[in-house]
Write a structure and sequence with these properties.
Blueprint lengths: L10 E4 L12 H17 L3 H15 L2 H9 L3 H9 L10 H9 L3 E5 L4 H11 L7 E3 L12 H11 L6 E5 L6 H6 L2 E5 L17 E3 L2 H9 L2
Parallel strand pairs: 1-2, 1-4, 2-3, 4-5, 5-6
Length: 222
C-alpha cells in the first residue's frame, strides 16, 4: 500500500546514477565507452563485437559485469575500477535537491549497482553526501544486480526496514518491480535514456517525475 504522506516517510532508498543527478550529465556515456574498451581488451575482440557483448549481457544478466562473471568467470575488481574511473566535472550541485534532502525527514540510503568508492565520489561532487546514512552497493550485493529480488530482501534485512514504510526512487523502471512487490512506495525518475524504460509498460509506479529536485522540493515545501 502506498504511503499517503511522502513527506513523513520513515525511509528513502535512492538509486544513484541518473537519479540523484540528471541523465544530461552524460556520465553513463563515458562509462559505456570504458565498459566497451575493457571488454574488447579482456575478450580480445574488436570494438563492434565488444559493444554487442556489452549490451546483450546487460539485457540478459542485469549488468554487463554479471554477464562477464557468469560467462567468463571474471574477477570483478579490475572491471569495476576501470569503469568507474571517470571524470566527475560534469556533475554540479542541484541546490534545490540538496535543500530538499536536508528538509526530508527519515532515513536516506543509496541503493546502487555501482561501488561505494564511486558512489562516494558522486555524492561528494553533488554536495549531498551528508544526507545519507549508508550506501548499499554491488559488492554488498555479492555482485548480484538490481532487479534481482534477493538483494531487495537483503537491503530490508541489513537495515532493519519495514518495506511498507519505505520509498524507493529509481530511474530504471524494471528495478522498481521488486520494491513494489515488497510493499514499498515507488518513485520513477523518467529520463531520456531509452534503456531505462525497459519494462515500463508493466510497471505501475506510485509517483513519476522527470526532475527529482523539483519533486522533493514540492514534497518538503512548507
Amino acid at each position: 500500500m502506498a504511503i499517503i504522506s511522502l513527506k513523513d516517510a520513515p525511509v528513502w532508498l535512492f538509486d544513484l546514477d541518473n537519479t540523484l543527478y540528471p541523465s544530461t550529465a552524460n556520465l553513463f556515456d563515458e562509462m559505456d565507452r570504458r565498459m566497451c574498451a575493457f571488454i574488447a581488451d579482456y575478450l580480445k575482440v574488436d570494438h563492434a563485437e565488444a559493444y554487442k557483448v556489452q549490451k546483450s549481457y546487460f539485457r540478459e544478466h542485469g549488468t554487463t559485469l554479471k554477464g562477464l562473471m557468469d560467462r567468463h568467470g571474471m574477477d570483478p575488481a579490475a572491471y569495476l575500477h576501470h569503469v568507474h574511473d571517470i571524470d566527475m566535472t560534469r556533475l554540479v550541485c542541484d541546490t534545490r535537491l540538496e535543500r530538499a534532502l536536508g528538509r526530508l525527514p527519515g532515513r536516506k540510503i543509496v541503493f546502487t549497482n555501482a561501488t561505494v568508492p564511486y558512489a562516494e565520489r558522486v555524492l561528494d561532487k553533488l554536495g549531498i553526501a551528508q544526507h545519507f546514512e549508508a550506501i548499499y552497493d554491488i559488492e554488498a550485493a555479492r555482485y548480484v544486480p538490481k532487479p534481482d529480488p534477493a538483494i531487495y530482501d537483503d537491503v530490508v534485512r541489513r537495515f532493519g526496514l519495514v518495506p511498507g514504510d519505505a520509498v524507493m526512487v529509481e530511474d530504471v523502471a524494471r528495478n522498481l518491480v521488486p520494491a513494489r512487490a515488497l510493499g514499498m512506495t515507488t518513485v520513477w525518475v523518467e529520463t531520456d535514456r531509452h534503456w531505462t524504460r525497459a519494462g515500463a509498460e508493466t510497471v505501475v509506479a506510485d509517483h513519476c517525475t522527470d526532475d527529482l529536485g523539483r519533486f522533493l522540493s514540492e514534497i518538503t515545501a512548507d
